[in-house]
Write a structure and sequence with these properties.
Structural class: mainly alpha
Strand content: under 5%
Largest sheet: none
Length: 181
């Protein structure tokens, strides 16, 4: 056996070894890809759960805003009624006839302005609740998007190994052809 034949045989052996190494590297890369994809799916699910929790919190805050608005509306009406009672008492103490035009206008103005204040409190609460419900829906949408996000997960490492075998097989065939000449 000559040195040329020896180096040819060694070269052929190294090419076969390289092809085998490529198969193992492809399998390892495919497994790493699977693990990364699974980690991404788990991260998406965790973020979706946080979004669900935030949606529920926003819903509760919306309900609380409506309740607080109702309390403020009632408080405003009670304040108006108290002011109206004070106005009547002062008018009566001052000798102003309560059934006269002047007293009637003042008391009507108090009623109208008091009702405007009460309705403003209700309207502000409804706007706050609406904004919180929209925020809640946004969180729900985010959770849905995260859960439905496409994360490429290879079914198995076989496709990567087969691809590597084909590529390595081509290299081995070429080496065999060169060696057999």
């Amino acid at each position: 056996m000559s040195w040329t034949d020896l180096f040819k045989d060694l070269g052929f052996g190294f090419q076969i070894g390289g092809a085998i190494s490529d198969v193992f590297q492809a399998r390892s890369a495919a497994r790493v890809s699977q693990v990364q994809s699974q980690a991404q799916k788990l991260a998406n699910e965790a973020q979706a759960q946080v979004a669900d929790n935030n949606a529920q919190l926003s819903t509760w805050q919306a309900q609380d805003a409506l309740y607080r608005g109702m309390v403020e509306e009632n408080r405003s009406r009670l304040g108006t009624a108290a002011l109206k009672g004070t106005q009547r008492a002062r008018m009566g103490a001052s000798g102003i006839a309560l059934d006269g035009d002047s007293a009637s206008r003042v008391l009507t103005d108090t009623d109208v302005l008091g009702e405007i204040d009460a309705m403003t409190n209700r309207s502000n609460a409804e706007r706050e609740a609406w904004a919180l419900r929209v925020q809640s829906q946004d969180f729900k949408n985010r959770a849905s998007i995260l859960r439905n996000a496409t994360v490429p997960v290879p079914d198995s490492t076989s496709s990567a190994v087969i691809g590597s075998l084909l590529a390595g097989g081509g290299r081995v065939a070429r080496a065999w052809y060169d060696w057999s000449r």
